[in-house]
Amino acid sequence: MVTRELAISTAKSFVHDCNLNGLSFYKVFIFGSVAKNMMHEWSDIDLVLVSDQFGENIFDNLKLYSKINIKYPTIETHPYPTNYFKTGDDFINEIIKESIEID
């Protein structure tokens, strides 16, 4: 089972690997069961990735880090462009309230 500490460490490693490959983030959040400390045997690590390098096309965004994500099968990503994130929506507002920000 994934522990909160392991999830945070894994998320930080993922972000570090992305940075090494030229992808930088404005913000990264863990949300879902890990943030709520309600993990179970099959829990994954839900990450919101916010980057100036992301555009409106989710498939283009996924291509920027898909090779890195292969190393992290327990991470499920949700990419957002920085400008969209800053304007917010109900989902983003909920994530901000119930998340762990990764630095």
Beta-strand residue percentage: 15-25%
In spatial order, strands of the major sheet run 3-2-1-4
Number of domains: 1
CATH architecture: 2-Layer Sandwich
Mean pLDDT: 95
Oligomeric state of the chains present here: single chain
Spatial shape:
globular
Sketch the topology as an H/E string, one letter per element: HEEHHEHHE
> What's the CATH H-level superfamily name?
Beta Polymerase, domain 2
Q: How can the largest sheet be summarized?
A: 4 strands, mixed
Tally of DSSP helical segments: 5
Low-confidence stretches: none
Walk me through the structure.
The protein is 40% helix and 21% strand. The protein is an alpha+beta fold and 103 residues long. The chain has one domain (4-102): 2-Layer Sandwich (Beta Polymerase, domain 2), CATH 3.30.460. Strands 3-2-1-4 form a four-stranded mixed sheet. The model has no long low-confidence stretch (mean pLDDT 95).
